[in-house]
Amino acid sequence: MTIGGERVAGRESFDVVNPATGQVFAAAPDCSDADLERAVSAARTAFAQWRTDERGRREAMREAAARIESHTRDLATLLTKEQGKPVREATGEVLQASEWLRHYADMESPTEVLADSAHARIELSRRPLGPVAAITPWNAPVGLAFWKLAPALRAGNTVVLKPSPYTPLTTLRIGELLADVFPPGVLNVISGRDPLGAKLSSHPAIRKVSFTGSTASGRKVAIAAAEDLKRVTLELGGNDPAIVLEDADVETTAAGIFGSAMTNVGQICVAVKRTYVARAVYDDMLAALSERAKNVRLGNGLDEGVTHGPLNNRPQLDRVTDLVASAVDAGARVVAGGATVEGPGYFHAPTILTDVTDEMPIVSEEQFGPALPVLPYDDLDDVVARVNASPFGLGSSVWTGDVERGGDIARRIEAGTTWVNCHLYLLPSLPFGGVKWSGLGVENGVWGLHEFTDMHVLHQNLLPGNAWS
């Protein structure tokens, strides 16, 4: 762990499993209550100076980006070992950290002049909040960490970062690499098993919690933060629909949907989770998706030529297996995949399901794995109502040969983002957030920066006396 700029081993540790083998390959420190208190105290102490040095913040963030880039290969290899994704994807995730740091280091946040007249000058400025808790999931531990760290640090906050106990190692290593880049206490990285996240979220010195994870866990974070009115950003679960219109190009659309549904074997909150296809092209689309599922190469993400890795952990493998089995028992038909893979590790074949209904859990819940239900529809208004009936509202997409028509339909969908003829297109400059059960607040762009600030209005009366003189 990195606390106050120093490396801290911790008195106890816990095992970390390589999901490609199912075997323990490393151990991580289990943060004690005393270590947690030390980390939060370091963040609180560092905040006073860090908040005042905008130029220093920008320079440190650029240096951090360069430091991470110079260790990309080693970090990507470690990320693949603990998370499972192919090393090509892991490399992209590590580079995303540098991209987000540079984006926010270059971002301006000027004071806004709301009024400037003979009567008054009124300005709006943004102020940092204080120590921030950043809690990240196991599916993209590095990338999602810097969705939080980059805007939080740029705004002038200090951070205590806690990765998932399934994937702590790469984050811990980054903390070590950056220990001499940021002043002591600005970036603290801790790791540990439950209930460490709950303790961090409820700590009275933490002024904001930025959390990415399941909706159930997000509710717990919100409850813990409510006790002393901490600010929260919650990026939670999704059940993203893709709607394919009858004029969509089948092969192009199948490639786009399969790619976004099966990247990281479906372990992405904003991946396509259910696909609704106009009946006129349903059979062709089902065949095209199935063909892609049958042609993937599953394996250890460090092996050359592997396109898809394992699920990250045994509970998630079990959940996907149970959802597929439950659907089949209820009448669904498997047209590709449908089972786990024999041998070591947490592998499940990419699966395409037909003869499914909206009531089946494989459709109504977030499976977070390589199983895609494909449903036909006959009426466009009806299918829009069906996708909007979900309590989730993170991402969504419409696929069509008529982009204008696609945009009209997209505006009717209840989601934080709706793409037309693409899915899972994310940039540091674009706002990202969910509606309904998919979260509170926004990440990325200037909107993400503002999530880590309070507004301050300065009203200067320029007339002699005042209204009560």
Please provide a brief summary of the model:
This protein has 15 helices and 22 strands. The protein has 469 residues and is α/β, with parallel strands linked by helices.
Description:
The chain is an alpha/beta fold and about 475 residues long. The chain folds into 2 domains: about 260 residues, Aldehyde Dehydrogenase, Chain A, domain 1, CATH 3.40.605; about 180 residues, Aldehyde Dehydrogenase, Chain A, domain 2 (3-Layer(aba) Sandwich), CATH 3.40.309. It has 15 helices and 22 strands. A 7-stranded mixed β-sheet has the order 14-15-16-13-12-18-19, sandwiched between helices. It has a 6-stranded mixed β-sheet with strand order 9-8-7-10-11-21, with helices on both faces. Strand 5 and strand 6 form a beta hairpin. Helix 2 packs antiparallel against helix 5 and helix 9 packs across helix 10. The radius of gyration is 23 Å and the shape is globular. The chain starts with a strand and ends in an 8-residue tail after the last strand. The model has no long low-confidence stretch (mean pLDDT about 95).
What form results from the Cα inertia axes? globular
Number of strands: 22
In what order do the strands lie side by side in the largest sheet?
Answer: 14-15-16-13-12-18-19
Largest sheet: 7 strands, mixed
Low-pLDDT runs of 5+ residues are: none
Count of separate DSSP helical elements:
15
CATH superfamily of the largest domain: Aldehyde Dehydrogenase, Chain A, domain 1
Helix-and-strand structural type? alpha/beta
| CATH T-level topology of the largest domain | Aldehyde Dehydrogenase, Chain A, domain 1
Helix content class: 25-40%
The multimeric state of the shown protein is single chain
| Relative strand content | 15-25%
The radius of gyration over CA amounts to 23 Å
